[in-house]
Write a structure and sequence with these properties.
globular; mainly alpha; single chain; 7 helices
């Protein structure tokens, strides 16, 4: 199974933790490396408009659940890695109307898109 297939399953909340862990292991990735690669692929796909906001938001929510699971946290000293957590927060910010915004403001446009562009502009090694 490739990363694109994992993104699709995650967007439907059909990606199991076991499948994600097995994918990471098969590529000799730590769970943090997997989470970060998953998040950056999601962000890149969103920027390139391969997937819409709802798809990406669902996949980001899956990622957050994965990163806050016992197995992931135990593997990472109970921390949430960047950029994975940043990507989750970017999509989370587009989910709701923010206090102080005019009623015609679209949260995805105001918050998610610029945050994703900023995340993707960083250099990750």
């Amino acid at each position: 199974m490739n990363l694109t297939e994992l993104l699709v399953l995650a967007s439907k909340n059909e990606l199991s933790e076991r499948t994600a862990i097995e994918h990471a292991e098969s590529y000799d990735l730590t769970l943090v490396q997997f989470a970060n690669l998953f998040a950056l692929a999601l962000a890149q796909s969103y920027r390139e408009q391969r997937y819409d906001f709802a798809f990406c938001d669902n996949a980001a929510n899956w990622l957050f659940g994965f990163m806050t699971g016992e197995t992931f946290l135990a593997s990472n000293n109970n921390t949430l890695p960047s950029p994975a957590y940043d990507v989750y927060l970017a999509f989370d910010a587009g989910e709701y109307h923010h206090r102080g915004d005019d009623k015609d403001i679209i949260a995805e446009e105001k918050y998610t898109k610029p945050l994703i562009l900023e995340i993707l502009s960083r250099q990750y090694v």
